[in-house]
Amino acid sequence: MVEPEPPAGLDPVQEGIRLFNEEYFFEAHEVLEDLWKREHGKSKLFLQGLIQICAAYHHFQNGNLIGAETLLERGAHKMRSYPPDYLGIDAVKLLAHVDRDRERIGRMQRGEEDDKVLKFPRIERKVQ
User: Fold this and answer.
1) Which of 11, 26, 42, 122 has its CA 20 to 30 A from that of 34?
2) 124 falls within a domain
3) Domain interval for residue 28
4) pTM (predicted TM-score)
5) Mean of the per-residue pLDDT values for the chain?
6) Which residues have a Cβ under 8 Å from the Cβ of 51 and sit 6 or more positions away?
């Protein structure tokens, strides 16, 4: 299902978070990627990390465990180089969940875990 275009003037980070929290990971990735492409400042690497996390959960939804695990690791690594509340995002909570999911996905790949279901994280943000 493709989400409609957001209204003009809507904060793209907030829109990406809304889509992520509704488990539209591909759409969240697209919204944030549009912003990332225009970004030339200090936020670029943080946004790339967040985009990779969106893409990771999209891969998981499609059964690509290797892609999901790899992108969770890469995205979390990029986001960790920023303050824990960068752009108002509670990165501590998000990245703790991402780390748990990455470990579970690794166990799934090794056949150590049969339940291939994740409770996806939610991104919490204090609007600045």
Assistant:
1) 122
2) no
3) 12-109
4) 0.91
5) 93
6) 29, 32, 33, 36, 75
The reported pLDDT for the residue numbered 127 is 74
Q: Express each pLDDT in 84-125 by its tens digit.
A: 999 999 999 999 999 999 999 999 999 999 888 999 999 999
Q: What span, in angstroms and rounded, lies between the C-alpha atoms of 22 and 80?
A: 24
The partner residues of 125 in beta bridges, in order of sequence, read: 89
Domains of the chain: total: 1
Distance CA 3, CA 90 (A): 25
Rounded to an integer, what distance in angstroms lies between the CA atom of residue 95 and that of residue 11?
22
